[in-house]
Here is the input.
Amino acid sequence: MIHFNKIAAIILAGGKGTRIGQNLPKVLYPIMGKPMIHYSLKLIEDVGLRDVIVVIGYRADEVRAAIGRRCDFAFQKEQLGTGNALLCGLNEVHPDIKYVFVCNGDDSAFFHLSTIKDFLSSHLRKECVVSILTVYKKDPTGYGRILRDKNGRVVEIREEKEASDKGKRNKEVNAGCYIFDKTWLKNNIKKLKKNQSGEYYITDLVKMATSEGREVNSFELTDENQGFGINIREALKEANEIMFRRYREEKKPKIFFIGLDYSLLDSGKLRSYLSSEIRNLIKNHLRNLKLASKARTIFWKTYEEVKLEGGFVNIPKTIERFVVLLKSEELKDSLLEIFLTAPFDQFLYPQALNLVEELNRLGRVVVLEEGDLVYEPVKIRGMRLKDKIEDYFIFENLKSAIPMVVKIYKGWSQIILDDRVEILEHFLKINKNAIAVRIKQGKYSQFKFNLKKQKRFEYTSLDEITIDLKNIVK
Here is the structure.
């Protein structure tokens, strides 16, 4: 797992915002009853960056008061552009920091948590001296354009007023987020030159890097509403409308349905453990190693037969039939004890409990599984899920019960997470507005899930889901 403990954040918040129409520091203009910088700071906190520096300038005391004590501050004495603001912030960065994440406090309110985490991870993997966030805008007016060479590599960011007519038709724009190698940044930021308006542009650092033959990493936003700049009154009004829709969706009650086997629990490893315990029990009872190994095979064959007949896993019935076949009915209680006292929590997939906790932060969690009503509830308790979930439903035939479950939570935003494509497809058939998350691991991983349709996601680990949750439920 990638960690961000060597990354500091610098938020540029010293601008006036005079084009919006009021005499306020730009970052204090309201979006849904909060200063717009509130959303930038909340995002950085949720990402988990340890050092946060806000560069303030115009009416600095008001900005500092509105923010409170959530960060450190750097003061920009003169409005000399974003490059100068970054230099002011850089002087406050802790010596052991290796990378610097930079964003504008007036246009970073709409980035999703997963977007910034993925952006940071991309930078750490590629180890470039500069990474930039880009987005394609239907109307790119007012944004700096991304210039690339014939091989698709970023060459520079050109501000709109300096772009040619051809350049202005380019719809890939600068989303206002950067990541720098701190050492490279400290060695180069003072080389920035003033532009015609007497300011230093942070975007010129991109051209500086490419002129050295350095590759600039670019990370593209897939949702243009995340890259939303606010420079005029109309944009502020639209920003409030976008945030209103996001709040309304986030406040809508959410229910997460999640399976157990091969979703949270590595049932393959659990089965190996149970096989070993069954073998040892029979070997010690019958004192016949050859028969013990054979009996283990007979048990799982009986398990599959019972499952095929009833349509679901039934451990008590499997044991009853097995001891009759083995002519050792006195083993019934001991066999059942193996299943009821198994250390289920030792076979959880990595991050299983962490995922459930994250789901709980966003809504309510309900286990939705197929099986018998003896073994499955014991499994839930053994996995340490009992206090982490809202409820559970165990059915002999899950597909036939899904319409009832959907109806129970009518009016809720419903998200189902499971490894079985068949269950996901059936759920989506019953509730066309549901979101389906396929956990591609374990026994059923070879089956294909159609991702071309909307509201469908697929991940190969629970950690990936945890990182991308905000994107899933947006």
